[in-house]
Write a structure and sequence with these properties.
By secondary structure, the protein is an alpha/beta fold. The chain contains 19 helices and 14 strands. Helix 14 packs parallel to helix 16 (401-419). The chain starts with a strand and ends with a helix.
């Protein structure tokens, strides 16, 4: 069968989920391709590739673009008298299976698709019904049978050719993304992990990890077969929780066998003196470590991060001690917050001295506990299904238009404020508080944010050729717009 995967945009990061499914599909003799919807019209991609299956992978923020393109595709297919099986997987389909009805899809995949998706292709090829496939939902209520994939070492490595064919210039980028585990034990209210834990309770351990040797085998193949490899980006929700035998083995073998700098995601309560020491020894140069709010009442009460100010401050001090640069997300416009809270978060973020701070506007996605909290307190209507992007203002009813504009300017100018020399602080804060047009604030802040991330966190991955660098910059602009 011919399978066309469709995603919104990967920015400068490979879409590991569809690459994994493509590897499984190609292993069984199917032909696959990838359409990136911010780069290519889906109808044209379908007309050119002639797929039997269109497989969307989407986060909630991708849905507006996918909905727009899918509607045009359905109209075109109907006019052409053609039939294509359409399925969606990824976070949005997992936690919002009603997207099947909204987009008139044929199926959704909830959770792991490694066993489910190849089985769907087998049955479609045989003309057999799809009932009873674990994790596959054929109605808007989702799958009746759930399963998790536990033996991650048994899976083929992601199909990187799929991404290379869609974005040829990415090969010049020196960064490659890798997953070492699946699952997250934490239950922050703005994230879907708490829903995942409930959904797959009884299906085995939530946190599943590849062996160190299996991870290193993939990295060695990347280093050998897909140069240049100058930076590894570990995409796990949290790379390590504590010093354990896995981390000790990794920190011993990785520098000897791979020896390439890497970036990973951590939490303030997992970046301790002991873990930071092992990470630095292994070759870690930067960590993503979000605080989400500089106000404990919001961070721990509303968002359920369970991190004290002291823990956060201590973790960033440890990062500086071991020369680990920090990429930090701090949300503004949290349900129940005030504008004073947002400015307190801004000051707290500056205090911890992040290398690359960002200030996204909080969006309580439907299906999360934060959405339920916002609805319960009257900040959102009960039928609200909010989506937000960098260029938007808060969608919550508890903020005035003036407050929303100030929050948006914090979003755009906050990275400059946090990293500017002390004498410039009053000037930038005045720009945030003053009625500076949001388009001007965006034009100033968005390029600076990309610059800080690129030069402080992911600098080893920047392409060395001017042509590839220019294309990556254009992709960044496309992503941010």
């Amino acid at each position: 069968m011919r399978v066309l995967f469709a995603i919104s945009t990967p920015f400068a990061v490979e879409p590991l989920g569809v690459m994994q499914l493509s590897a499984l599909a190609r292993k069984e003799g199917h032909t696959t391709a990838l359409a990136i919807l911010k780069r290519r019209d889906l109808r044209k991609a379908v007309a050119a590739f002639q797929p039997d299956v269109v497989a969307y992978s989407a986060s909630s923020g991708d849905i507006p673009l996918i909905t727009e393109q899918d509607e045009r595709l359905r109209d075109w297919l109907q006019a052409e008298g053609r039939r294509v099986f359409r399925i969606m997987g990824g976070p949005h389909a997992t936690y919002a299976p009603w997207v099947l009805d909204d987009l008139q899809l044929d199926a959704v995949c909830q959770g792991d698709g490694d066993h489910a998706f190849p089985e769907v292709l087998r049955r479609l090829e045989a003309g057999a019904p799809l009932d009873g496939i674990p994790n596959i939902g054929l109605t808007g209520v989702g799958a009746s049978v759930k399963e998790q994939v536990h033996d991650l070492d048994a899976l083929p490595f992601p199909d990187r050719t799929l991404f290379d064919e869609a974005v040829p210039h990415f090969r010049a980028c020196g960064m490659r993304s890798v997953l070492t585990c699946r699952g997250c034990p934490f239950a922050c209210t703005y994230c879907f992990n708490h829903a995942y834990i409930k959904m797959f309770r009884g299906c085995g351990p939530i946190l599943r990890r590849r062996s160190v040797d299996n991870v290193l085998e993939e990295l060695a193949s990347l280093k050998r077969d897909r140069p240049p490899l100058r930076l590894v980006r570990f995409s796990d929700d949290t790379f390590t929780l504590r010093v354990d035998p896995w981390l000790e083995e990794f920190s011993e073998k990785y520098p000897a066998r791979i020896g390439v700098p890497f970036y990973c995601l951590m939490r303030s309560n997992t970046l301790t003196e002991d873990t930071a020491k092992l990470l630095a020894h292994a070759g870690c140069t930067a960590v993503g470590m979000s605080i989400e709010s500089g106000v404990e009442r919001l961070r721990n009460g509303v968002l359920q991060r369970n991190l004290s100010d002291e823990e956060v401050i201590a973790s960033f001090a440890v990062a500086r001690k071991y020369r680990l640069r920090t990429y930090v997300s701090t949300m503004v416009g949290i349900p129940g917050a005030t504008l004073d809270d947002d400015f307190q978060s801004l000051e707290f973020a500056r205090k911890i001295q992040p290398s690359a701070p960002i200030f996204p506007i909080c969006t309580p996605y439907r299906g999360t506990e934060l959405w339920e909290y916002a609805v319960e307190h009257g900040y959102l209507s009960a039928d609200a299904d909010p989506f937000n992007t960098l260029g938007d203002v808060s969608l919550l009813d508890c903020f005035s238009p003036k407050e929303k504009a100030v929050q948006a300017r914090i979003c755009y100018l906050g990275p400059i404020y946090c990293t500017a020399p002390e004498p410039l602080k009053p000037i930038i804060k005045a720009m945030i508080k003053a009625p500076l047009p949001l388009s001007a604030a965006y034009a100033l802040g968005a390029p600076y944010m990309v610059y800080r991330i690129a030069t402080r966190i992911l600098w080893q991955g920047i392409p060395k050729t001017s042509g590839s660098l220019a294309r990556l910059v254009l992709d960044s602009v496309r992503y941010l717009s």
